[in-house]
Design a protein that fits this description.
Length: about 240
């Protein structure tokens, strides 16, 4: 596998890079990042079920989004692909690496929350009340409406909250699941991320067989608030490295 990627690098062939979006997001949140990466990679992305223009009306779960990813990889005849997963997308990437390692080469995550129990889930769910958001943060509500049309953004938020509750109640990946992942992984977290702690990120990096932790100065949780030049450079350095 390494020889294939080394040969691709020295011969000028582009590496394949799959981008997986976060909860409440869609593939369009990578628009500016793709502009920076398109000259270096063959970029692939898609919307998880019920997100963006994907109108599949089902209950959300990490398992479902992993199956979405498998379907996409099969549709485009992709295997041993590199994956950059933002937030929930990083969790899906690691779930895929655990359950179907033959599809994954290297993974880089950013702002992925790994610590799920009843208390942490309740904390996140409290921030996912569509009626309160519509009243208190109307700009955010309108952005969600536009980003997920023709889907109902309120339904997406409620389904996301239900998924988080389920993770907190025991459907989250176990330490043994992470420990079984052999692919190289770079766990990234912003130094100013208010949702994901450095401690929980380090704990997962320690469990994985071949992983490093990178704390990015100045980075916050929302990907759109971060410097796309810095992020694209980190992605290029990681996936085009060893």
């Amino acid at each position: 596998m390494f020889f294939i990627y080394w040969f691709s690098y020295i011969s000028g062939m582009k590496l394949k890079l799959l981008l997986l979006h976060g909860a409440l997001g869609n593939k369009d949140q990578f628009a500016s990042l793709k502009e920076k990466l398109i000259s270096q990679f063959d970029i692939y992305d898609f919307n998880f079920s019920g997100h963006g223009s994907n109108t599949n009306d089902v209950e959300f779960s990490i398992e479902l989004f992993m199956e979405d990813t498998l379907f996409f990889l099969d549709e485009y005849n992709l295997d041993n692909v590199n994956i950059f997963g933002y937030s929930m997308g990083g969790y899906v990437a690691l779930k895929l690496a655990k359950e179907h390692p033959e599809f994954v080469n290297k993974i880089m995550t950013l702002g992925t929350k790994f610590h799920w129990n009843k208390e942490s889930a309740e904390k996140e769910v409290k921030m996912l009340n569509p009626e309160i958001i519509e009243e208190k943060i109307p700009k955010f509500a309108e952005d969600l409406r536009q980003n997920h049309f023709p889907n109902d953004w309120k339904s997406i938020m409620r389904k996301t909250a239900a998924m988080m509750t389920s993770l907190g109640n025991g459907t989250a990946m176990k330490p043994s699941d992470f420990a079984a992942i052999a692919q190289p992984v770079l766990i990234c977290v912003g130094a100013e991320d208010k949702m994901v702690t450095i401690g929980e990120s380090q704990a997962i990096a320690d469990l994985l067989q071949d992983a490093d932790l990178m704390v990015i100065p100045g980075f916050k949780h929302p990907i759109e608030l971060n410097d796309v030049e810095i992020l694209s450079t980190l992605i290029q350095n990681y996936f085009k490295g060893r």
